[in-house]
Every structure is written in C-alpha cells, then in structure tokens.
Amino acid sequence: MIEVAASPIPRTLHVAVLMGGWSSERAVSLKSGNGVADALESLGHRVTRVDMTVERRTALAADLAAAAPDVVFNALHGVPGEDGTVQGMLDLMGLRYTHSGLAASVIAIDKQLTKNALVPHGIRMPGGMMVGSESLYAADPMPRPYVLKPVNEGSSVGVAIVTAEGNYGSPIGRDVAGPWQEFATLLAEPFIRGRELTVAVLGDRALAVTELVPASGFYDYDSKYTDGLTVHICPAQIPAEIAESAMAMALKAHHVLGCRGTSRSDFRWDDEQGEAGLFLLEVNTQPGMTALSLVPEQARHIGLSYAQLVQRIVDEAYPEASPGLGG
C-alpha cells in the first residue's frame, strides 16, 4: 500500500449533494449521494441532500438557490447529471460543483465523441460505427463477435455481445429482447477478447489498476452493483508494463477531455497481444461512490479513506477551503 499523508482539517463548508435523477442509474446515484453526504457530515460539513426527481426538476434551480451552498457535490449518474445539462445550469447559477464541467461532460458521455477526441492523441480505442437499430434486422454490421451499446448510457446499460453461438439469431430478430428495441441507434464495435480492467484518476494522479472478474457472463449492470457477482482484484495481477500503460492512458484521457475531480477509465486487455491488446473503452466522469464502487476501492489501496476521498473531490471544486490546496 502507498501511504498518503493525512490532509489538514479543511474549513467547514455547506455542501449540497445532488443525487437521484431519472436515468437508468437512479438507484446507484442515490446510494452514491447518501454515502457522500454521510462522509461529509462525519467531517463536520453542513450537508443539504437534494434528490433530483422528475416531479421536482423544474424547481431544481430554485431549490439550490434557496439552499445557497458553498459547493454542490454532483453525485448524479447518466443523463441529465452527467451529460452537461446540470453542469450548464450550475455554471449559469454561478455555483461551484464537483467533477467535470460542461465541455468534458458533453464529450465523455458520448462514446463516439470520446473516440473522436482521444484517438488523435494516440489513445488506443476499438474501431466501430454508429448503426441504426432497424438495420440490424437485415444484416450484421460487422463480422461476429461484436458489441452493441447505447452511445450515451453508463454502467453497461443496454450492452449486448453478439456472438456466432448467441441466441440473437442471424440476423437479429425484431422480436428478440435487446438494446435495439430501446434505442434507435447503437454503437457497434468489434468484440475484444480478454480481461476487464479499470483505472481511477483523482486530480493529477492515476490511482491503480483493478481487474474485474464477473462470476458469469460479462461485467454488466447487475455484476457491477450486486455484491458477490464480481471479484475485484486490486491491484490487478498483470505485467508492470500493462499496468503502467493503462494508468498513463487513463491520466492522459482525463487531461485531454478536461476532466476535473475524479474519473474512471475502463479497458479491455487481450493478454495474447501484449500492450498492443490494451484498449480504452470509455471514460466515466461521474464514477460511482457506492460501497461496491471502484474509485473508493482504489483510493483505499493508496491509503485514502472514503471520507478523505470525498474531501479531496470537494477540495478541487473549492480549493480556497482546503489548507492543503489553497488560501
């Protein structure tokens, strides 16, 4: 374990923790937000918990204005908390907030825009194409196996791996359950065999590499958020050069996209190809903060408690309040 010196006691702040939303990741966001709020209260901060519901969405700005927090901790996942919508509102209101700003959020939520931004900077990502879901009923967009995924969903929501042996049929049937029934367009990518890796970035530092080993199938939504369905190996038992490359790619992606606070980059590594088999899949600008989440786990690996991690994220949004970061 890498020892991290304890941070000086920060100035007490009023933090509004924004959570919930109405995306497919609402339940995860509520767990993240309440965990963050509990940690902030344990540090002595004053906390206002704001559950962003569909019914209260038109009142969100008024609710935040009435609360008048020093900083907003954005614990939302998915649209509209991760795609720039909430970030733009907070910018207009002049409120400080955690995690990435408007531009980085707009790009990173869209897997195709992320490729357009990162690949020219030498970051290896899978090839692929956008396809209309209707076209899948006529023919496969590329040789099997391949992956279909919504372009702007997180937590592996709506991901389908189409294999030659799969039960989707060839071509995929209109009456077969899958993301083609829910989304008009999908991103099709070649399937990369091998191992699932992830790297968290906090500020200017890549924390560690975790390998994710699902009990069965692939690392889908249930595997991510159901205790016991996935084994987390942190640090990953992989060659040093692969770990270093993954951490360097994650940190570079964080900076190229203009991310703030923390992000998490997900990878597939074909261990039969060495470093050439390492591919970045996506960058999450609002990674989970639940008990099973990967960023808190990697923070513990370098010696940061959950509360210290939360404080570091707040520090970057409001450096003046931290003796270690500003005035």
Structure overview:
It is a single chain. The chain folds into three domains: 14-99 and 305-321, Rossmann fold (3-Layer(aba) Sandwich); 108-125 and 193-285, 2-Layer Sandwich (D-amino Acid Aminotransferase, Chain A, domain 1); 129-190, Dna Ligase, domain 1. A hairpin with an 8-residue loop joins strand 11 and strand 12. The chain has helices at 26-42, 60-67, 85-93, 102-108, 111-118, 221-225, 240-257, 294-301, 306-317; strands at residues 14-20, 46-52, 71-74, 129-132, 146-149, 160-162, 185-190, 195-202, 205-214, 230-233, 262-269, 278-284. The longest helix is centred in the last third of the chain and has 18 residues, at 240-257. It is an alpha+beta fold. Helix 1 packs across helix 9. The strands form three sheets. The protein has a five-stranded antiparallel sheet with strand order 10-9-8-11-12.
User: According to CATH, what is the class of the largest domain?
Assistant: Alpha Beta
* Helix residue percentage: 25-40%
Side by side, the strands of the main sheet go 10-9-8-11-12
Order of helices and strands: EHEHEHHHEEEEEEHEHEEHH
Indicate the structural class. Answer: alpha+beta
CATH topology of the largest domain: D-amino Acid Aminotransferase, Chain A, domain 1
Approximate shape? globular
Task: Please name the fourth-level CATH homologous superfamily of the largest domain.
Answer: ATP-grasp fold, B domain
What is the number of beta strands?
Answer: 12
- In total, the number of domains comes to 3
What is the CATH architecture annotation of the largest domain?
Answer: 2-Layer Sandwich
Low-confidence stretches are 219-226
Report the β-strand fraction as a percent range.
15-25%
- Main beta-sheet annotation: 5 strands, antiparallel
